[in-house]
Amino acid sequence: MIDRSSPSLTEVSSRRRILRAGGLGMLSATAVALLAGNEALAQQQRRQGGAGGGDVAILNVALGLEHEAINAYQIGAESNLLQPAVLQVAVAFQSHHKAHRDALVATIRQMNGAPVAEKTRQEYVQSLNAAAIRNQTDILKLAQRLERGAANAYLGVIPSFTNRDLAKVAGRLAADETMHYTALTQALNEALPGQALSFGA
Q: pLDDT digits over 87-116, tens only?
């Protein structure tokens, strides 16, 4: 969850636009989508050619990932497959993603952009292959995969920012996703990455 005492995406984005170089925004948005393992979204970014500006395009890719995470946790919560303690953590993580979503939406609007719309629940059910979920482990594995993808996506976009404050907020978002990934990995009784620098590569 974003600490409101620190610069939010909305506050820091008003100071300076990101991605001044022409075309870089579209490439960065595509890279973020690929890092997150979302080839369909990357293809969409290529077709749009960064329409609406690089800064808005890259933030909309991030917003799309947040919509996906919120819905994934909702699907898990409604499955009746999660133990009470695990459900409580899942709801907490979902609240973090909702805070991320709200900050991204506010930033995009402040930049005179149009926030990417959330898909229907059925579209998320299909794209996340929710029909294959059979137990708590399946839900945790799905969430783990999405959290790692989101962490890598936020880390991947940091070098594109010319504004240090905006880059810092992206780093903080990546830290949230990494925290989620770590907790989910431990809940699955899996080993954490054995080598340093395992995220954002």
A: 999 999 999 999 999 998 998 888 788 999
Instruction: In whole angstroms, give the CA distance from residue 95 to residue 98.
Output: 5
The pairs formed by 174-177 with CB atoms below 8 angstroms and a separation of 24 or more are 174/150, 174/199, 174/200, 176/1, 176/96, 176/100, 177/147, 177/148, 177/150, 177/151
pLDDT (tens digit per residue) in 108-160? 888 788 999 999 999 999 999 999 999 999 999 999 999 999 999 899 888 87
Q: Residues with Cβ < 8 Å from 21, sequence gap 6 or more?
A: none
Cβ proximity of 8 and 2 under 8 Å: yes
Domain range for 138: 59-187
Q: How far is CA 174 from the centre of its chain?
A: 8
**Number of compact structural domains in the chain:** 1
Q: What is the CA radius of gyration of the chain?
A: 16
Residue 153 contacts residue 32 (beta carbons within 8 Å)? yes
Identify whether 39 is part of a domain. Answer: no
Instruction: Print the SS3 string covering 31-56.
Output: HHHHHCCCHHHHHHHHHHCCCCCHHH
